[in-house]
Structures are given as structure tokens and as C-alpha cells.
Amino acid sequence: MDIDIKLDSELDNIFEVRNLHYSFLGRYPALCDVSFDVKRGERVVVLGANGSGKSSLMNLLDGLVFPQKGEIRFMGREISEQNLKDENFNRFFRNKVGFVFQNSDVQLFSSTVWDEIAFGPLHLELPHDEVKARVEDISGLLGIKKLWERAPYQLSGGEKKKVAIASTVVVNPDVLLLDEPTNGLDPRSQAELVDFLQELYQAGKTIIISTHDLNIAKMISDRAIVLNESHTVEAEGATRDILENTELLLKANLIHEHIHCHDGEIHRHPHGHVGEHDHEHGRGHAHKHSHKH
To answer: Mean pLDDT score of the chain, rounded to an integer?
Structure first.
């Protein structure tokens, strides 16, 4: 087993997703015939409107649920219920991949923030001095040292999100999955998270993020995968190109169009999350005009 893992870890593709089908209770489609690859060291964003299947895809990538059809391979090995029953592969996979849930409440369970962040390193049986150093380092980077003695349930939504990120990153996974990581964060915390993710990327981490926030997407990714409301891949490509394609964003319901008539002229204004913090500088949305005949 150890020899195979060493060979597989040299593959360029971290994830290979092929013809993935997943539905709730086998009846309610969440993903239909989804295929894509994620290469080592990439920053990939999964874009889609609410209900498009983003969270389901993240759960599948983390091996929390399994597809009815198709497959996902991690470093050449299929992520299946049977394979994850293998203790060696399960340990290998869980040490390599970290997942930050959309809802932080389902991820936090310790009595204090310190215990929450230290849980992973302690579970890895790291020396106490190293556990302490890791908790201090990651807490300093995320500005949460002041929260150490507090219970996670007492924290605000944004504070919980930071603690969840800290408890995931502290074990130093090679791959980081983040499901809607900016939900509940104020603008300053969002900016801090963007800077933090940039540091992780420069350190060689592979980062996959799901979001519908287009303003954040352009700052934290180089490649985008767009899920539509039919739960299939609508488009895949460079994030910059995706975000400049207004028709694509409208089709995927990532932006909407406000239409009004003024002085006999129809004005169409696509609105969305692209540059929503830049409205005062005139970069908040695109404009299209057509004349009424």
C-alpha cells in the first residue's frame, strides 16, 4: 500500500472527476454528468447559483458522500466508500485533504477555541511543543488568539468561520476545500482571508473553493468551473475569462439583469457580485443598451 501511494502522489492531477451523478435519496438531482480535473498547486473556484450543486460537489470531493454514477479519483485512487474503509488509504486521504464546511457549526465541537484548533495536531500525535507552536502560528495569522479561552458556540458567525479554517489548516493539508468560505465574514475579514489563501497558494497548496461571490472569485482563483441550475458544468476556463462573459453569468444565474425604459430607450443592467465593493469607482456592473422601436 505504501509503495502505491508514493507512486500515485507523483501524478500531476490531484482530482479527476468523471461523469459524476449524485442525487439526494436517489430522487432529487444535485449533479449530473460532471467531469473535470484539478492539477497540483491550482487555485480553482466552483461557481454556481444557490442549489446548483456546489456544496454537494465539495462533499463528494471530501469523501463524505458518494456518487450514484461516475467516479472521483484522488492522486489516482478512487474515492469510494469501500476504499475509505481501508485504514491506510483513509489516513493518507484525510491527512492530505482538509475541508472547511459552509456551516461552521457542524465542524466545531470542542469546549474552547484552543482545544478546537489543537485537536487535529493532537490526533496526529505531534509533540506538545509543536502542537502549541502550530496553534499559536495559525491563530496569529487569522487574528484569533483573543478567542482561545472562549467556547466556539459563543462566537459570531465570522469568528466561527476563522476558527474552522484554523482547525483545518493547522494540520497542514496539501489540498484545501472551502465551501462558501466568505459567508458570514465582514469586508475586513474577507480581505484577511483572501491574503491568507494567497499565502497558502504561494506555499504550494492546492485550493478548491465554492462560492457565488464573483468579487471574491477573481481574487482567489485562476480557473473557474461554472455549474448551472441543471446541475451540469456550464463552462470551465480561466477565471478572468469566465467573469467577463456576461451572457454566461446570466445563463448560470450568477448575475441578474435589471431592465427599465427611459426616454424611449430600454436599458439593461446586469447586476451581481462582480466588483460589488467597487461601485463608488464605477466598476460595479456592466451596462447594455438597446433602443425601443
So the answer is: 86
